[in-house]
Amino acid sequence: MRHILPILILLLSITCSCGGQQAAPAGQDLPPVVTTAQSQHGLPALDTLRESSLAFSLEQDGNMATAKSPTAIVDGSELQLPSGSNFASWGIWSFDSGYDYPTLLNAVVNVPDGDEFWLAVSDYENGRWQFSGPYGSGVAIELSSANRSPKHNLHVAVLAMEGSAVSVQKLVLATDNGWKVMDLGIPISSTALELISACMIGGRPAVAYVSEDGALSYLRASDPLAHDLNAWQDEPVGLIGGVGSFSDISLCSIDGKPAVALIRGTDQWNIYYACSSTEEAAPADWQINPNPLASGSNYSPNFSMADVGGHPAIAYVDTNEELAYIRASTGNGSTASDWSTPLILEVNDEPNEHVKRPQLMMDRGKPLVSYIGLSSEVFLRYSDSATGAKLSNWLPRSTVGLWNDGDWEDKAMFLHDGDIEFMLYADDSHSSSSFEPDFIHYYFRDTYEKQTGWEGKHEVAEIDGGSFHASLSGASINGMPAACYRSNYSPELTYSFSDPDHPAYTSVWEHQEVNDGFQNGMLLDTELMENAEGQPCILYCAYDFQLDSRRLYFAVRREP
User: CB-based contacts of 432: which residues, under 8 Å, 6+ apart?
Assistant: First the structure.
């Protein structure tokens, strides 16, 4: 099994066991490549090394070499490398870093006084061995993704020559899964239920949130990748104050410019709307419609906004707990007259039941609304027109899947390869124990000709069961379906993605820990997005125990 979780390795104190003992130097860059060692001492060419499917350990004893010269000698757990004036000895060790980045190699080598050894590390960027040395003691060298093959293998060779005799005791590879988490220094409301909504605006991550003082605010990173806090130093823009509890917000890009819709808990859950006239969205660029568009519900989250034909449109749960749809007649929707009369797409057909978690998206140029309905099933309403302007445009509801997986507590609808797909969080309601595991499932359209809809399903993850906080988000990342999530009984935030190297890639999933959650609890909202490099990034809100405050966080995966 590939090692894809972040691994905390206690770096070894590397010493010689014969005279002149000394600690290994700190991690260092490789010296310039030496081109003659390979041809002179018989080290096999890099392209002849086999790509193994074995899950090699990240810590290997000397006797675990996958290849060695005829002169190398296995001695217990070590590999002895004698040499003479006319022969050399070498050993090769192979590592599988999975989807993590290799960062540091520690070579624990016993080197007698006056002797030395060389290291060679695979360099797949240039298709050759990268030599460094000579070293008179154990050494730690820095690595990068260039040292890893397309199949995630990394090869290390230790060579002794010209009369030196060394003994390889251990090789240790340190890796990093690439996730960097940043506290943006923004306290979030402690009373509002739905706290953030995020998306890409002009190729940069942006977020709308309810601030600590109850104001709807907006912030966008100053560069597309936002790898450090310097990208989040712009002053947030305050839009609407006095949001109150039972709020819900939705941020989206309308014709390349940010727009925010809000259900305001202090105003009988009415829906308000604001938009910017520019992509930069300076304070003076925002237009705030002072009139409510419609009356929403105090069930949360309960609405979603999208760009429908260049105009803002909203799917929401109204005060009667019915599914409604409203679209502006103009591109900005900045006045009350810009908005049409709401269409009721789904009535409340049973007492004490209500539509929840509607999500509005465009599917092949036409609006589509998904929602969790009666009996916790996931339903869809399609429009047969590009705008969904008439009730007659909306087709009868359909069901996402035929599977009996328990109650759907949350869902995430997203586009992958131009098709609508889902991540669904299933509460195992069939179990008599509330602590039985729950599941994240991936749903997709099945091409089996005798079935229609989303009968394709794979299990993404099994997670701790119990009461669930709304923290599931899905997206297509670098062409692969992906999800981030946290359960109530597991503090860590996890990122899962389908394995692109597996023939049945959507049935095999890799998992990475974004944040161990040790300092955070009550993770409330997450938004998973793809950045300009095709890497995942996440905006989320969590409670910081040390600061006794809800905080806004940004996490991004990049090479360390």
Answer: none
Tens of pLDDT, residues 283-342: 999 998 888 888 777 665 678 999 999 999 999 988 888 899 999 999 888 887 899 899
**Location of structure tokens 């916790």:** 376
Q: Band of the pLDDT at 142, cuts 50, 70, 90?
A: very high
Task: Summarize the confidence of residues 494-521 as an average pLDDT.
Answer: 81
Instruction: For residue 214, give Cα distances in angstroms to 184, 239, 247, 295, 305.
Output: 18, 11, 10, 20, 21
Side-chain half-sphere exposure of 294, counting CA atoms within 13 A:
26
Domains, in order of start, for the chain: 37-176 (2.60.120.260), 179-557 (2.120.10.10)
Q: Structure pTM?
A: 0.84
The mean pLDDT value for 7-34 works out to: 30
**Residue 211, pLDDT above cutoff 70:** yes
Q: How many Cβ atoms from other residues are within 10 Å of residue 504's Cβ?
A: 9
**What are the start-end ranges of the H helices in 242-312?**
none
Average pLDDT (452-479) is 76
End-to-end CA distance of the chain: 23
Q: Which of 306, 555, 210 shows the shortest CA–CA distance to 219?
A: 210
Closest among 269, 250, 270 to 261, alpha carbons compared: 250
Question: What span, in angstroms and rounded, lies between the C-alpha atoms of 457 and 159?
Answer: 50
Partners of 417 in beta bridges = none
Peptide bond into 301 cis (omega under 30): yes
Could you give phi then psi for residue 232, rounded to 5 degrees? -120, 35
Full DSSP string of 312-373 = EEEEEE-TTS-EEEEEBSSSS--SGGGBPPPEEEE---STT---EEEEEEEETTEEEEEEE-
The closest of 535, 538, 527, 532 to 558, measured between CA atoms, is 535
Q: Answer whether residue 24 shows pLDDT above 50.
A: no
Tokens found for residue 248: 């819900």
The closest alpha carbon to 446, from 410, 413, 412, 422, belongs to: 422
**Burial class for 267, CB neighbours closer than 10 Å (0-12, 13-18, 19+):** middle
